[in-house]
Design goal:
By secondary structure, the protein is α/β, with parallel strands linked by helices. Helix content is about 45%, strand content about 15%.
Length: about 250
């Protein structure tokens, strides 16, 4: 029997309609995707994430304030976030730092990110982290805050930093970006990832691409690409990432 699949990062709430999300979940089930992390990005979508998780046992809800959407957070957002996390078994995410798109407000990003890391630690919840061009700062904050397990989604950092991050509790998820033969550093990172911390993701629906199965079902293509790059079998990587995902989430 083939291993079930674990999609370490998506945004099902971003589909154009509830019907489209339901169809994506149906196709995912047909492809063998039995668990997935659905990440909220701001208070405006947390209720939708909650609803998706309530309607499908494969969906693990994650609630967080993404660095792109700081302006959408009303006063009291952190208390609201805690209330959502306490309503259901869930993770903190998507949170993080982005030195590209929003470099001008990095100081505020850091404050918001740190507050959410502390909340994750307080509640004993894993965290799903977005990091772009801020790897040195990220390492310093993780060392200072010492959170529980955390996941770098669509890891794009230096391969040389992975061992230290792993020693602090990191898991590393890789997306369909590994299919780009020009992303040599990314492929080196895939090969450098500790086997017991390796995960794969679709980031559906934003990363849906021609030729892929739409939605979380596209995880099949991501794992097939990783197998070709690493010299492992798709079945081996599927089983490995399933075990890692279950350990990371405590499911």
């Amino acid at each position: 029997m083939s291993s079930p699949l674990f999609d370490a990062h998506n945004h099902l709430q971003d589909y154009d309609s509830a019907a489209a999300a339901v169809e994506a979940l149906r196709l995912a089930a047909e492809a063998g995707v039995e668990l997935m992390l659905c990440n909220g990005t701001s208070p405006g979508d947390w209720e939708a994430v909650l609803t998706l998780a309530a309607g499908n046992k494969a969906v693990i809800p994650c609630f967080g304030l993404h660095p792109w959407f700081l302006k959408e957070a009303p006063p009291g957002w952190l208390e609201t976030l805690e209330s959502f996390l306490l309503r259901v078994p869930s993770l903190v995410g998507e949170i993080g730092l982005d030195g590209g798109k929003n470099a001008s407000d990095l100081a505020r990003q850091e404050g918001v990110f740190t507050a959410q890391l502390r909340l994750a630690k307080k509640l004993g919840r894993p965290a799903c982290i977005h990091c772009v061009k801020t790897w040195g700062k990220m390492l310093g904050l993780i060392k200072e805050e010492a959170p529980g397990p955390f996941l770098f989604h669509s890891y794009g950092g230096p391969p040389e930093m992975m061992a230290e991050f792993a020693s602090l509790g990191a898991y590393f998820s890789f997306s369909g970006a590994i299919m780009d033969a020009g992303r040599e550093k990314l492929r080196r990172a895939l090969l450098a990832a500790p086997p017991d911390r390796l995960l794969f993701e679709t980031e559906a629906p934003s990363a849906d691409a021609p030729g892929w199965r739409a939605g979380p079902a596209g995880l099949v293509e991501v794992i097939a690409a990783a197998a070709k790059i690493s010299g492992r079998t798709a079945e081996e990587l599927s089983a490995l990432s399933w075990a890692n995902g279950k350990r990371f989430t405590g499911r």
